[in-house]
Amino acid sequence: MDWYPATLTARALAADGLTDLTLDVSRTPLAQAHQRPGQYTWVRLPGHEEGVFAIASAPGTSGQWDLLVKAGSPLPEALIQLPLGTVLEVTRPAGRGFPLDQARGRDLLLFATGSGISAIRSVIESLRQNRDAYGRVTLYFGVRTPSAFAYARDFQSWEQARIRVVATVSQPGASGWQGLTGYVQAHLAEEDLAPGTVAFLCGQKEMLQTVVETLKARGLAAADIHQNV
């Protein structure tokens, strides 16, 4: 793999255990390299094993890449602690990503659990740039606890962009959560699926399997169901 410099320019807490990092690659050959939402990059720091992260920002965003980093292992912990201005190394975006062009003029269902929202956020930020080119858009987003919703600060702006957010919590406990509970797939039966609907999925394996089976059973073609695992 070829490696390129990326400068850490911003950091923000995205949710419990999740941190949003912004990298600047604008002065490198990678400035326009991010082509499709859902692609990922490898990251390395001296003294740590390389790690792979989905690019959470929209392709072509002025050489700025957002990465959602999950605490708990050595490389993410090191990335979270880096001073702003630190230069690290990244690769060209890789992976097929999501075929957003295939969804033009059609309804789009988005499914994410936990940190899987990073790849789906790239889709959302992409389609917001040309929202009228798509039909109805619904995001099904599931987490364990209410404080685990990454990018919850963006929900309102997504709704304003006519992206319906169906947020559900599987372990609300005594949190006082007043929204939907249970797993993402438990709420799919409520969705009105129009002919030609397209689905993009990223997240926990059981969710992916169950949602794919349910969508196929309800008439979606396998070619219109895309996973980013």
TrEMBL record:
<dbReference type="InterPro" id="IPR012165">
    <property type="entry name" value="Cyt_c3_hydrogenase_gsu"/>
</dbReference>
<dbReference type="GO" id="GO:0050660">
    <property type="term" value="F:flavin adenine dinucleotide binding"/>
</dbReference>
<dbReference type="InterPro" id="IPR039261">
    <property type="entry name" value="FNR_nucleotide-bd"/>
</dbReference>
<dbReference type="InterPro" id="IPR017927">
    <property type="entry name" value="FAD-bd_FR_type"/>
</dbReference>
<feature type="domain" description="FAD-binding FR-type">
    <location>
        <begin position="1"/>
        <end position="100"/>
    </location>
</feature>
<dbReference type="InterPro" id="IPR001433">
    <property type="entry name" value="OxRdtase_FAD/NAD-bd"/>
</dbReference>
<dbReference type="InterPro" id="IPR017938">
    <property type="entry name" value="Riboflavin_synthase-like_b-brl"/>
</dbReference>
<dbReference type="Pfam" id="PF00175">
    <property type="entry name" value="NAD_binding_1"/>
</dbReference>
<protein>
    <submittedName>
        <fullName>NAD(P)H-flavin reductase</fullName>
    </submittedName>
</protein>
<dbReference type="GO" id="GO:0051537">
    <property type="term" value="F:2 iron, 2 sulfur cluster binding"/>
</dbReference>
<dbReference type="GO" id="GO:0016491">
    <property type="term" value="F:oxidoreductase activity"/>
</dbReference>
<dbReference type="GO" id="GO:0006221">
    <property type="term" value="P:pyrimidine nucleotide biosynthetic process"/>
</dbReference>
